[in-house]
Structures are given as C-alpha cells and as structure tokens.
C-alpha cells in the first residue's frame, strides 16, 4: 500500500465522556436546588470557573445544555467516503497530474478535494491517512543530481569548521572590565 506521513489523534473515551457528563448533570441538579457555585465546585472537585461556565449554560438551556456534545474529533470522512480517493491514491501521483512519483499531504488533500468536493486541513488529511493504514516513506535512493564528490569534500573540510564551538577556550571571568586570569 502507498505511504504518507501521519500524526496520531487523541480525545476521551466514551466512558470518560459519560462520566464527565454525569458530573455536569449533578451540578445542574444542584444549581436547580439553589446551591452556591463555590460549594458545588468544591464538592464535585472541579474548578470554580468550570462550575460557573456550567451554571451559565444551565441558565440558558437547562439540564439539556449540560449534555455531552460527543467526541471532539469525529472522523473527517467515513470509510465509505474515503474509498474513492484511496483508489485514486493507489494509481500514483502521476495519474493525478503531478510531476513526480511523490505523495505529499498537500497533494493528497488536493485529490480528496477534487474527488469528494470537500476541503480538509492538512492535519486532518494526515490523521485520515493514518486511520486507513498509510504511513510515510523515505526515498530509497539518492537524487541523480547529487554530487557525491562535492558532498565528501564538504563533510571533510567545511563541516569540521562549522561544528566547532564559538566559545573561546581558556579561562573566563564574570566581570566585564577584568579579563580572566590564567
């Protein structure tokens, strides 16, 4: 299967989301009973700021406003939607009109936009590819334009001078007016 660089995602599990929703629900019931925000925050072991934010939401929408909105990182595309662009990716970059045989995230983003007529950010494309088993791949060979002799000379002559420390060797002093002594 073709490969591209990918980044992992995060988020809460369904159990953890349900637990947090339960805490908010308890707070909402206590808001309705007229308890003070500071007391509720202390008892539920949450910040006063969170409790205040929940009270504001509760005032505007009741207990329903304290329900979980679901996972924050829901999939950008379903597996069925991604099947069509994935088929195009399998044909290679040149089949998509690119100059060379190199997939980059921006190119994958372009294929998805052309095929599905939806725009997704580069990080979202990255996570989407990882979810579907794609990974990154480094080139197997060096470029034809690479001058091995010039690279060798540079490593031998220039790099040792470039990597030396810029700090002066020898004794130093913390005084600006009095140089270090030997």
Can you put this structure into words, describing what you see?
With 182 residues, the chain is mainly alpha-helical. 50% of the residues lie in helices and 0% in strands. It contains 7 helices and no strands. α4 packs across α5. The N and C termini lie far apart (65 Å). The relative contact order is 0.13. The N terminus is likely disordered.
Mean pLDDT: 81
Residues in helices, as a percent range: 40-55%
Percent of residues in β-strands: under 5%
* Low-confidence regions: 1-10
Tally of helical runs: 7
Number of strands: 0
Structural classification = mainly alpha
- How is the main sheet built? none
Taking the alpha carbons of the first and last residues, their distance comes to: 65 Å
Basic shape: flat
What Rg is obtained from the alpha carbons, in whole angstroms? 29 Å
What's this, in brief?
The protein has 7 helices and no strands.
Secondary-structure blueprint of this entry?
Layout: H1 14-32, H2 37-44, H3 48-61, H4 79-90, H5 105-116, H6 122-131, H7 148-163
Helix pairs in contact: 1-2, 1-3, 2-3, 4-5
């Amino acid at each position: 299967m073709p490969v591209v660089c990918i980044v992992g995602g995060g988020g809460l599990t369904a159990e953890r989301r349900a637990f947090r929703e339960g805490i908010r629900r308890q707070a909402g019931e206590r808001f309705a009973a007229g308890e003070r925000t500071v007391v509720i925050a202390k008892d539920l072991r949450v910040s006063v700021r969170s409790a205040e934010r929940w009270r504001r939401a509760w005032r505007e929408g009741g207990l329903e406003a304290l329900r979980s909105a679901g996972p924050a990182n829901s999939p950008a595309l379903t597996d069925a939607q991604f099947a069509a662009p994935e088929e195009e990716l399998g044909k290679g970059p040149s089949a998509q009109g690119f100059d060379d045989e190199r997939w980059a995230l921006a190119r994958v983003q372009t294929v998805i936009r052309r095929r599905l007529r939806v725009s997704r950010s580069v990080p979202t494309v990255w996570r989407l590819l990882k979810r579907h088993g794609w990974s990154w791949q480094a080139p197997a060979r060096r470029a034809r334009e690479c001058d091995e002799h010039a690279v060798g000379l540079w490593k031998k002559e220039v790099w040792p001078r470039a990597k030396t420390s810029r700090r002066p060797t020898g004794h130093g002093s913390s005084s600006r007016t009095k140089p270090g002594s030997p």
